[in-house]
Write a structure and sequence with these properties.
Layout lengths: L6 H9 L5 E2 L10 H4 L17 H8 L10 E4 L1 H13 L5 E6 L4 H8 L3 E6 L10 H7 L4 E7 L11 H14 L2 E5 L21 E6 L12 E4 L2 H11 L8 H12 L1 H23 L5 E2 L8 E2 L2 E2 L6 H9 L3 E2 L1 E2 L9 E4 L4 H19 L1
Parallel strand pairs: 1-12, 3-4, 3-5, 5-6, 6-7
Antiparallel strand pairs: 2-8, 7-8, 9-11, 10-14, 13-14
Length: about 350
C-alpha cells in the first residue's frame, strides 16, 4: 500500500502563497477569528469526544430530517470522513464507483488502498451531470459504495431530487451505500434537493465548514449516516486523529447556530461574484464553459482545445494569479476558476487572466 501525493495539492503547495490574485480557490473567502466575534478565552484545550462534542453534533443533526446526534460523526474535515468510510465499507475484493471529476481524495483514497475503482465519468454534453442509466451499467456484484459530489467540484453542476432518489435506489438494489458530498449545497442558486442522509439508511451525507463557510483553517467536517457507519468512523479516528480541535468545534458550533443570519450574507456575495464571472465569460473569445448551477467554482476550457497547463503556469509566473489546471484534477483541457473570494480580487484576477489569454493567442 502506497500513499502518493495528489497533483492538485502539489500545485497548491507550489503556487497558492506566491500570488497576488487567487481565482482558483474552491471556497468562499476565509474568515478570521476577529471577524467572527467569537470569544474563545474559556475554551478548554483538552482531548475532546471521539465523535465530536455532543452539542455540535446536535446542532448539525438539526439539518437532517429523521437523524439525531447519534447519526453524526464530526471529523477533521470531510476528507477524514471520506477516508474512514471507504476504508470501512470497501474491502480488498470490493468495488467502489466514484463520480469523476471530483475532489481528488474521493478517488485517490481508493487507489491508495488498492480497491477496485470504477469512475462514473461526467460529460460536457450532459452539462457535467451524472446519467443514472450510465451508473446502473457500472454497478458490479461486488459494488459496496457509490459516491457522488453535488453540487460538483470543479464543474458546479447539480442533480435533481429525482436523480438523487434514483441513485439511492440503484445503491439499494446493489446492496451498497451511496455517499454524497454535499459541501456546496447551501450555495446552490436554486432550491436544493433533500440531504441524502434524510432519504435512506444506506445514504451518507458528507460536508464541511471549509467551502461555504470560509473556515478551512478550523478543519471541521462531518458525516451523517446510519449508526454502524458512525461507529466505523469512530474506530478509524481512534487510530489516527482521536478527536477534533476544541477551538475548531466551538467556532463551528457558533457559526452553525447563527447560520440563518450568516448564510444570506455569504450567498449574496457569491451571487454578486458569479454575475461578474458570467459577464466576463460572455465578453471574451477564447474560453467556453458549462455554466455552474451552484457553488463557487466552474471549469472553463479553451475553445481551441488542448492543455491549460501553459495558461495556468503563465498566470502564476508572470501575472501572479492563481488558478488550477485541469490536469491536476484529471480534467485535461479545462481549468478551475473560483469566484468565492473578495469581489475586487476577482475582478483583478479576471483581468490578469484576460491578459494571459491574449498573450497565448497572439
Amino acid at each position: 500500500m502506497t500513499f502518493e501525493r495528489m497533483p492538485l495539492e502539489i500545485w497548491f503547495d507550489d503556487h497558492q502563497f506566491e500570488v497576488d490574485y487567487d481565482i482558483g480557490e474552491s471556497g468562499t473567502k476565509f474568515l478570521t477569528v476577529k471577524e467572527l466575534e467569537i470569544d474563545l478565552n474559556e475554551v478548554e484545550l483538552r482531548y475532546g469526544y471521539h465523535l465530536g462534542h455532543p452539542s455540535l453534533r446536535k446542532e448539525i443533526a438539526k439539518q437532517y430530517k429523521g437523524n439525531s446526534l447519534d447519526n453524526v460523526a464530526v471529523t477533521t474535515g470531510a476528507s477524514e470522513a471520506n477516508f474512514a468510510i471507504i476504508a470501512h465499507l470497501v474491502g480488498p475484493k470490493d468495488n467502489i464507483i466514484v463520480e469523476h471529476p471530483t475532489y481528488p481524495s474521493l478517488y485517490q483514497v481508493a487507489r491508495s488502498l488498492r480497491r477496485n475503482l470504477t469512475l462514473l465519468k461526467l460529460d460536457w454534453n450532459d452539462g457535467f451531470r451524472p446519467r443514472m442509466d450510465k451508473l446502473r451499467k457500472l454497478v458490479k456484484p461486488n459494488t459496496k459504495l457509490i459516491t457522488l459530489t453535488h453540487p460538483n467540484n470543479p464543474t458546479g453542476s447539480v442533480i435533481s431530487k429525482d436523480e438523487l432518489k434514483e441513485a439511492i435506489e440503484i445503491a439499494e438494489e446493489a446492496g451498497a451505500h451511496l455517499m454524497v458530498d454535499e459541501t456546496y449545497r447551501d450555495l446552490m442558486f436554486d432550491p436544493p434537493p433533500p440531504l441524502a442522509a434524510s432519504l435512506s439508511p444506506i445514504a451518507i451525507s458528507l460536508t464541511s465548514m471549509s467551502k461555504t463557510w470560509g473556515l478551512p483553517g478550523i478543519r471541521i467536517g462531518w458525516a451523517v449516516a446510519d449508526r454502524p457507519i458512525v461507529e466505523a468512523i469512530r474506530a478509524v479516528r481512534e487510530q489516527v486523529t482521536i478527536c477534533n480541535s476544541s477551538l475548531g468545534e466551538v467556532i463551528a458550533k457558533e457559526v452553525l447556530h447563527k447560520r440563518h443570519e450568516i448564510l444570506p450574507v455569504i450567498r449574496k456575495a457569491v451571487l454578486s461574484n458569479y454575475k461578474v464571472v458570467e459577464e466576463w465569460m460572455g465578453s471574451q473569445d477564447w474560453l467556453e464553459w458549462v455554466e455552474p448551477k451552484s457553488g463557487v467554482v466552474c471549469a472553463p476550457r479553451l475553445k481551441r482545445g488542448g492543455s491549460t497547463d501553459e495558461l495556468c503556469e503563465l498566470l502564476v509566473k508572470k501575472y501572479r494569479t492563481f488558478t488550477v489546471p485541469g490536469s491536476r484534477m484529471e480534467l485535461d483541457g479545462h481549468f478551475r476558476l473560483g469566484f468565492g473570494g473578495e469581489h475586487e480580487e476577482l475582478i483583478m484576477g479576471l483581468e490578469q487572466l484576460r491578459k494571459a489569454l491574449i498573450e497565448i493567442h497572439s
